[in-house]
Amino acid sequence: MKRIGMPSVLLWTAMITVGCDSAAPDVNPAPRADAGTQKEASVDTGLDVVEAQAPDVEQDVVDDGGPMIRQVYQRDPFGRLDPTNLLHDGDFELSAADSMQYPWLGLTASNYVTGVDCRSGLRCIELSPSEYVAGVFVWPETAAVEVSFHGKLRSSQDCEKEAVGVVMMADAYGGELMIPAKTSEPVDGWCQYAAELSVPSNVGYHLWVLLLAARQQATGAVVFDDVTMVASSFRTGRQALSVPSQDDAWLKQARKKIQGWLPPNPPRKPLPIRNITAKKKLSPNAGI
What we know:
Elements (H helix, E strand, L loop, with lengths): L5 H15 L83 E2 L6 E3 L8 E5 L4 E5 L7 E10 L5 H4 E7 L7 E3 L11 E8 L9 E7 L7 E11 L8 E2 L5 H14 L27
Antiparallel strand pairs: 1-4, 2-3, 3-10, 4-9, 5-8, 5-10, 6-7, 6-9, 7-11
């Protein structure tokens, strides 16, 4: 084993001492107690430091959401339930072809329209030129009523020339009143027809109906929906009109057709009533 002499030991000690005292940079210096913030401890490089600030004027960002993909509609399956509506089914929600109820006469399966084409509820009707239906209603005890309905024109923008409504007797002639267009052109896609009329004095002796029709000279089909008849007191000042003479022919034809729709169909005479009082006849020996 080789021994290290005293001079070698002294030399190694001196070299270690010099290495420890050298000015080598400390890559991870310990923090000082008197160290300030990062800005105070920064090195002065002779350059002006400018801090970035937010702009004073905010730019409006418009987000249009991109192109529309679909539209969502919220509808009540029972339509617009108006307790003051005197029509049996003003929204056509409860009407069906060949049903036991007759809120509308003359409807067939081809007349029904469903979905977004309707104004209220889920169901409405579409009538081609010269087609018509008759709605059943009850008269109020007031002096007047206000009739209103809406129509969507398939191929025109002239509300007056495409559709019409008539309040009439189904079993007699005379007293017909026309419900004219309130708007000359569609508003939000719909024409509105409205008018007020006096309650007749013979309401208990005849069957009155509201006739909705696409005119004979209409350029296309008309969708009808949201039909109302409510008690009124002539508050609008817009009164129903007499039916023009040029409409007499088709109105007579419509009345005759409505009479064929009325139950029973085909018409038949009612069976004679044998026991008017509906009391059971007692035998002479009854109670003995």
